[in-house]
From TrEMBL:
Catalytic activity: N(4)-(alpha-D-Man-(1->2)-alpha-D-Man-(1->2)-alpha-D-Man-(1->3)-[alpha-D-Man-(1->3)-[alpha-D-Man-(1->2)-alpha-D-Man-(1->6)]-alpha-D-Man-(1->6)]-beta-D-Man-(1->4)-beta-D-GlcNAc-(1->4)-beta-D-GlcNAc)-L-asparaginyl-[protein] (N-glucan mannose isomer 8A1,2,3B1,3) + 3 H2O = N(4)-(alpha-D-Man-(1->3)-[alpha-D-Man-(1->3)-[alpha-D-Man-(1->6)]-alpha-D-Man-(1->6)]-beta-D-Man-(1->4)-beta-D-GlcNAc-(1->4)-beta-D-GlcNAc)-L-asparaginyl-[protein] (N-glucan mannose isomer 5A1,2) + 3 beta-D-mannose; N(4)-(alpha-D-Man-(1->2)-alpha-D-Man-(1->2)-alpha-D-Man-(1->3)-[alpha-D-Man-(1->2)-alpha-D-Man-(1->3)-[alpha-D-Man-(1->2)-alpha-D-Man-(1->6)]-alpha-D-Man-(1->6)]-beta-D-Man-(1->4)-beta-D-GlcNAc-(1->4)-beta-D-GlcNAc)-L-asparaginyl-[protein] (N-glucan mannose isomer 9A1,2,3B1,2,3) + 4 H2O = N(4)-(alpha-D-Man-(1->3)-[alpha-D-Man-(1->3)-[alpha-D-Man-(1->6)]-alpha-D-Man-(1->6)]-beta-D-Man-(1->4)-beta-D-GlcNAc-(1->4)-beta-D-GlcNAc)-L-asparaginyl-[protein] (N-glucan mannose isomer 5A1,2) + 4 beta-D-mannose
Pathway named in the protein's UniProt entry: Protein modification; protein glycosylation
One Pfam match: Glyco_hydro_47
Family: Belongs to the glycosyl hydrolase 47 family.
Gene3D superfamilies: 1.50.10.10
Binding site for Ca(2+): T663
Protein localization: Endoplasmic reticulum membrane
GO biological process, one term: ERAD pathway
Protein name (Swiss-Prot/TrEMBL): alpha-1,2-Mannosidase
Amino acid sequence: MYSAAAAAAASPPRRDFISITLSPEDAVGAGGYNNSKAWRRRSCWRKWKQLSRLQRSVILFLFAFLAVCGVISYTSMGEPWKSVTNKSLDDQRTEPEIPGLKLANPAVLPAPQKADANLGNYPELSPQKPPKPPHVRRGPSNLQIKPSRRDVRLKTRHDSSRVVEEVVQADKEEKTEKSVISWRGAVIEPDQSTEPPSIKIKEPEKPSSVEAEDQKEPVPINERQMAVIEAFRHAWKGYKDFAWGHDELKPLSKSYSEWFGLGLTLIDALDTMWILGLKEEFEEARKWVANNLVFDKNVDVNLFESTIRILGGLLSTYHLSGDSLFLEKAKDIGNRLMPAFKTPSKIPYSDVNIGRGTAHPPRWTSDSTVAEVTSIQLEFRELSRLTGDEKFQKAVDEVMKHVHTLSGKNDGLVPMFINTNSGQFTHLGVYTLGARADSYYEYLLKQWIQGGKKENELLEDYMRAIEGVKKHLLQRSQPKKLTFVGELAHGHFSAKMDHLVCFLPGTLALGAHNGLTADHMKLAEALIETCYQMYAQVETGLSPEIVHFNLHAQKGHKDVEIKPADRHNLLRPETVESLFYMYRFTGDKKYQDWGWEILQNFNKYTRVPTGGYTSINNVQNPSNPEPRDKMESFFLGETLKYMFLLFSDDVDLINLDKYVFNTEAHPLPIWAPA
Ligand code: DMJ
């Protein structure tokens, strides 16, 4: 190895050069390896001394140069580094505004949430918590429950889970192409109809306006409403005195009749008492429910009737009162009705033994009625939402999906029967909006509303059916040219219209209120006039069960003809129900006046002095309307309730943007109010 020392010794002429030597000899020296600080200092100094002056100057110059460069570069580069550092921190807080750029890990995250809590609250999986205590002012005030701390906690949890829902929803919305439904003139906004029907058990949507509503002054009850309260009290007196805890009052014989043996009238009337503010009556009835209502009975009940009256009545009372007793009872009856769906086609049987858990069709057929199997959905869907158990909704949704696909319809109009084995319509070719088909049409619209106007198939079927009505069933009578809905039997039109059809103007108006085509409202206006004439043209001012319209003008003949077999009146609600909707949506007082006439005629011809009201056999004979000795439960559940609501000017008294009435007038919440 070449060394500076060796080179200097070998060549006499001294030449200046720079060399750095790192030989072992240099390092170790005479004294061998010594790594002490003093030794190292000495050794360096010796080396430095051995360098020529030029070498030393060059080295010093290099050191000085490097030092100057270091200082300059530090001062000029310090700022940029500082800003880069700051910017990268800032970037973690705000997303760069570059269109199209998505950060894989979003820079902004929702405020930290406890994962478990959110999953636990995931609306599709968890049972619904008891609803926020009611804020319905009209109910008995001492039964109105103030929000507890628990409720406040639930609300907070609900709010935080909604953040997640909103994020998920926003994501979904981006992915889903927005669709517009257009059905012969009816255009539904995309946001009303973007998702296919699905089973979604949601947490209750608490109307945000509830608090604001509570601040408002209660609208005082007017004289007509007072008259309804009086009528209700009179009916209730008869029921209480002679039929307490039984299904129906027989007001003339001062006794009762039993259908299911489940206190049908009492349950049907619960929410009416709440709405009318009948505190004492409500409390008494509640006690009966708590102590006496048991479903563990060896009794056959009709699936449809017990669903709309009992399950529907319990659910709505639960919502209005917030009293969990009613939800418990609703769950019980709901579970006991489920065996009805165990059929080869999943189209439910008509009857269930709620004690034994068995179900069967009527003795003479394996058919079910179309209106019955398609008018239990609002109630079972709500039960799923409240319990978090999807089995109820699944069962009834399957029926709707199946019926949606069936052949045998006529421009959306359905036959009256469906077979529980084959799942096919039977008795094809007969189409009516009356008995056995009526509430199929009603529930198409109302389910669509209940579910937040997202289930397109329901809306399609409804719109198609109304077109079918217009095409095949609408006619005008003579001499007054009343628009009515007749029937079609194997291609032959019949000018027969059941009083039951008078639900239709109200349903059409409800659809129009919810954004459907305005000509539905026009049709509603024409039809409610007809329904009113079914009362006004009759001697007692009460409608018969069925009328036939005159298609040809004949001297001395009115529009309405009544056959002897059809001249009874069962205290039915449909016309009053539609009057209520018409008044709510138009504010036209004539609808209230028509309803007032009807109430007076009920009082005149059907009121029994010792308590209760009775159905009558002959609406054409004012001197002897032939009382039938029966007060149907729907007189308290529906007729008087709709009367009371019709006479009210308070749109918040069962707000139609928050509640949807089942076919027995039991209001159930709309899941996602507008
Ligand atoms: C009620 O039980 C219901 O309104 C049902 O939809 C039809 N019949 C009666 C009232 O008339």
